[in-house]
């Protein structure tokens, strides 16, 4: 979902929060909650006026208020008020606002929260004002809940392979090549050939690309049942585990040591998102001469994880036309390029990547290429609970050597007990 560890979901509270919003939102049948396709109504841009209350998190919340002045200059009848919300409080704040009927007009929402909040009927279906074809397909799918789209992708991130060219002369392109490259890096002097998350919070985001690359599906076609216990998913688990059992990846890397160890040549490669470019540059600008990025090596298919954040309009908004007009403005390619210049958020609109400010960057081009095949987890109300199960089971897989088939079965049983919420 996010660019920093502090932006990971607050796992373990999702079930409680979902129960809160479902019990307290007060919306009846026909509100367009998850599992009941809803129809969007048109937006009258010409009549848009009023004051829009917007919630945004982290860096985005700090920068959006000033950035929105350009929108207000174009739309003098609309005022935008932005409230910055800390990421660690955002999920519960939104859930409580829905339960109490005190939502803002627009809010930034983590991609993996969409299913949960759409299930309450609190999110307004995306109107035709928004051009869905302009977004990366994987990003657009993060707004699809039960066949209805809610909101728009605001910014995106995906995961690629960071590797040291002095330890891996060429980027691996497939699973066998990744194993060989990791071993080659160790032969060249690295302590470990690759770093992968061995379970715990957020590990699913590193593992799931392997599952998608193997051709695994997470849910059935209508997202009512989980499909973890398949040969493709087991194959992915076995491949992921092999990096640990063969000693190519550490199971207990001390927190904070990845970046310095990588820049020192002790780790040959790792999987991460765009934020790590800046972290590595700040740590050792000269050492970046030995750092390259590449799309994730493919299995039967090419795939990576797509995350980021979406913008949603709430059904209780009394300035709906103005709210959607603002969201549409933030989705324009030129606005997305300008926003990237402010906070380095990668555009969700594909055409924005043609701008020289992004296209000419040697590292960003790799992320743009990976976004073409990046996949989002299913937008279901219970995803955070299920993700927590995957994180826990991955730790057994990587640190305790649990059998991949047994792990797949355990994930399937626990996920089925939780249900998809649709």
Automatic annotation (TrEMBL):
SUPFAM superfamilies: Periplasmic binding protein-like II (SSF53850). It holds the Pfam family SBP_bac_1. Residues 1-19 form the signal peptide. The keyword Magnesium does not apply. One of its GO terms (molecular function) is maltose binding. One of its GO terms (biological process) is maltose transport. Keywords: Signal, Transport. GO terms for cellular component: ATP-binding cassette (ABC) transporter complex, substrate-binding subunit-containing. It comes from the Bacteria. Belongs to the bacterial solute-binding protein 1 family. This is Sugar ABC transporter substrate-binding protein. The gene is lacE.
């Amino acid at each position: 979902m996010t660019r920093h560890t502090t932006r990971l979901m607050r796992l373990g509270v999702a079930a409680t929060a979902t129960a809160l919003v479902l019990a307290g939102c007060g919306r009846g049948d026909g509100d367009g909650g998850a599992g009941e396709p809803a129809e969007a109504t048109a937006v009258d841009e010409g009549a848009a006026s009023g004051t829009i209350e917007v919630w945004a998190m982290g860096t985005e919340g700090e920068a959006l208020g000033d950035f929105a002045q350009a929108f207000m200059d174009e739309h003098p009848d609309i005022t935008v008020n932005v409230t910055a919300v800390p990421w660690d409080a955002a999920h519960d704040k939104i859930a409580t606002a829905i339960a109490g009927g005190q939502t803002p007009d627009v809010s930034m929402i983590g991609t993996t929260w969409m299913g949960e909040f759409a299930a309450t009927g609190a999110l307004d279906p995306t109107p035709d004002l928004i051009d869905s074809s302009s977004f990366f397909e994987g990003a657009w799918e993060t707004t699809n809940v039960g066949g209805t789209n809610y909101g728009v992708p605001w910014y995106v991130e995906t995961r690629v392979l960071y590797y040291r060219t002095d330890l891996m002369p060429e980027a691996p392109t497939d699973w066998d090549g990744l194993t060989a490259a990791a071993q080659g890096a160790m032969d060249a002097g690295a302590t470990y050939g690759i770093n992968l998350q061995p379970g715990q919070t957020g590990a699913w985001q590193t593992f799931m690309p392997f599952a998608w690359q193997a051709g695994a599906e997470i849910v059935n076609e209508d997202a009512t049942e989980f499909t973890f216990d398949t040969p493709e998913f087991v194959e992915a688990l076995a491949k992921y585990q092999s990096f640990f059992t063969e000693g190519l990846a550490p199971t207990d890397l001390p927190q904070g040591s990845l970046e310095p160890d990588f820049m020192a040549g002790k780790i040959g490669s790792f999987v991460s998102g765009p934020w790590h470019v800046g972290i590595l540059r700040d740590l050792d600008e000269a050492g970046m001469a030995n750092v390259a990025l590449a799309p994730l090596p493919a299995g039967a298919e090419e795939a990576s994880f797509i995350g980021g954040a979406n913008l949603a309009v709430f059904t209780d908004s009394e300035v709906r036309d103005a709210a959607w007009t603002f969201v549409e403005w933030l989705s324009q390619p030129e606005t997305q390029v300008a926003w990237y210049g402010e906070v380095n958020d990668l555009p969700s609109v594909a055409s924005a990547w043609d701008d020289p400010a992004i296209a000419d960057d040697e590292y960003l081009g790799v992320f743009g290429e990976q976004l073409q095949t990046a996949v989002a987890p299913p937008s279901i109300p219970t995803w955070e609970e299920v993700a927590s199960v995957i994180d826990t089971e991955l730790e057994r897989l990587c640190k305790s050597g649990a059998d991949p088939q047994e792990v797949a079965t355990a994930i399937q049983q626990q996920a089925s007990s939780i249900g998809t919420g649709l």
